[in-house]
Amino acid sequence: EGILVEDYGDRIIVPGFVDLHVHAPQYAFRGLGMDMELLDWLETNTFPEESKYKDIIYAKKAYQIFVDNLKKSATTRACIFATIHKESTILLMDMLEKVGLATMVGKVNMDRNSPDYLREETEESVNETISWLEEVQKKQYQHTRPILTPRFIPSCTDELMHKLKDIQAKYQIPVQSHLSENYGEIAWVQELCPKSEFYGDAYDHFGLFGADAPTVMAHCVYSTEEEIQRMKENGVYVAHCPESNENLSSGIAPVKRYLEEGLSVGLGSDVAGGSTENLFRAIAHAIQMSKMRWRLVDQKYPALKSEEAFYMATKGGGSFFGKVGSFEEGYEFDAVVLDDSRLESSRQMSVKDRLERMIYLADEREVKAKYVRGNKII
Question: Which label site among 108, 135, 143, 154 has the fewest CB atoms less than 10 Å from its CB?
Answer without folding.
Answer: 135
